[in-house]
Design the sequence.
């Protein structure tokens, strides 16, 4: 396997009144192709901020982010946007589907924005949605889909442009346990089939235990391996 994502000595601080609030500092994280890693931690620990930095939506206060060995934190906005579009897929707790478009169209649109032909985009969207068990729901709009089906469409959309990295922020957090398990199974199976590197934030320790490894964001530090037992 090859390293796709690395965070080196990363810190994040926010202004708070006349001072600064430090969310985390000195973080080290690496993610390899084909690897699925859980990111766990209490609410407010900074999991979303970490994902946003890994996905180039936020700039770290210190340290560097590498994608495929290239330092990307200080690149111009247009180049960061291009990397997000071509290399990174996002799945959020809320599906954020466009309500006026069908499941197929929601997965076609990001591909067309990236310059793909409609014919190619429809074929790829159909393939992904069928892989996620939605072959019979292609023409349904979000309001006609269950919560679990909507989130599967969101997963397909995140993978539509063939990213190298998938970042998911509590992707089953809005679902009941049974539905969450099914969506998680579909997510993991598709990530492995596509050969992506995935970093998945979750509160569900049962789901985290099914991933390749788990990282705990605790008191501004990432804890892993045998250190988890001491937290």
Sequence:
């Amino acid at each position: 396997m090859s390293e796709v994502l690395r965070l080196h000595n990363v810190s994040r601080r926010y202004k708070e009144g006349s001072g600064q609030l430090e969310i985390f500092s000195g973080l080290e994280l690496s993610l390899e192709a084909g690897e699925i890693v859980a990111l766990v931690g209490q609410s407010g620990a900074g999991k979303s901020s970490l994902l946003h930095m890994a996905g180039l939506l936020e700039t770290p206060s210190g340290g560097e982010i590498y994608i495929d060995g290239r330092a990307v934190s200080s690149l111009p906005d247009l180049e960061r946007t291009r990397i997000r579009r071509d290399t990174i897929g996002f799945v959020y707790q809320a599906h954020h589907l466009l309500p006026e478009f069908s499941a197929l169209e929601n997965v076609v649109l990001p591909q067309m924005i990236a310059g793909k032909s409609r014919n190619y985009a429809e074929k790829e969207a159909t393939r992904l949605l069928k892989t996620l068990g939605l072959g019979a729901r292609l023409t349904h709009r979000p309001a006609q889909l269950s919560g679990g089906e909507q989130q599967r469409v969101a997963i397909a959309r995140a993978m539509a442009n063939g990213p190298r990295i998938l970042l998911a922020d509590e992707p089953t957090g809005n679902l009941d346990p049974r539905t969450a398990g099914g969506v998680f199974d579909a997510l993991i199976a598709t990530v492995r089939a596509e050969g992506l590197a995935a970093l998945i934030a979750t509160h569900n320790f049962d789901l985290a235990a099914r991933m390749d490894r788990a990282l705990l964001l605790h008191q501004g530090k990432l804890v892993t391996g045998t250190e988890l037992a001491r937290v």
About this structure: The radius of gyration is 18 Å. The mean pLDDT is 89. Residues 177-194 form the longest helix (18 residues).
